[in-house]
Design goal:
The protein has helices spanning 2-6, 8-14, 21-30, 37-48, 57-66, 71-95, 97-107, 111-134, 139-148, 153-178, 180-188, 190-210. It is mainly alpha-helical.
């Protein structure tokens, strides 16, 4: 019951794609067709690291499909934006947790997870951040919690560069190779992929709780 409560915002969004994630997905996708596409990619990567629910992979995929030869540029922009957003989330935890930080955490009902993340940071802060940066586990919780528990900032930055960079460059490189086929699959099977993503998040939460 506690796990279901913690995941309720994600379940509401991802289990109802036409009303939740699908609408945000389509809205995000529109930016790939404007002259502000690169700036939008940077900003999306930045805000996703602290509070926004849609991962920047969505826009990264759309932009890379439209121009596969710039895949490394788009991956770099996403990585830089995400890492800087992670640092921003860290400072939210350091200076504004009681106001901004708690609001974000409470919105996603992830208060219990912050304590668990704190325990993981005591064991290995670098590995904890890297895992969250590379996987579907909510990265924003780890960046904010990093500030709350005052982990070394260099651990957060280096682990984020490796984790986020590894993830985004892997996605972009795959699109460079397979191109529009992946985009067509996402469009055709979006609802199913949303459920798979939800399952990955649940698995991530379970792993964190098991390792508490």
């Amino acid at each position: 019951m506690r796990l279901t409560k913690n995941l309720s915002p994600f379940i509401r969004i991802l289990m109802l794609p036409n009303k939740g994630v699908r609408r945000l997905y389509d809205w995000t996708l529109k930016w790939s067709k404007t002259k502000y596409a690169k700036l939008s990619l940077f900003l999306l990567a930045f805000i996703e690291s602290s509070f926004f629910p849609i991962p920047p992979d969505v826009l990264l995929i759309a932009m890379t499909v439209s121009n596969r030869f710039k895949w490394w540029i788009f991956a770099s922009i996403t990585t830089v934006g995400s890492v800087l957003g992670g640092i921003f989330g860290y400072y939210i935890g350091v200076a504004f947790f009681e106001t901004v930080g708690k609001t974000i955490i409470n919105f996603y009902h992830l208060g219990d997870l912050v304590e668990i993340v704190g325990n993981k940071y005591e064991q290995n802060s670098f590995l904890a951040v890297f895992t969250a940066a590379f996987t579907p586990i909510p990265y924003k919780v780890f960046t904010i919690a990093g500030g709350v528990f005052k982990i070394p900032l260099q651990d957060l930055i280096i682990a984020s560069i490796l984790g986020r960079g590894g993830r985004f460059f892997l996605v972009a490189a795959a699109l460079r190779i397979f191109g529009k086929k992946i985009s067509n699959i996402i469009e055709k099977y979006f609802d199913i992929l949303s459920l798979i993503f939800m399952t990955l998040i649940i698995i991530g939460f379970l792993l964190i709780k098991m390792l508490k």
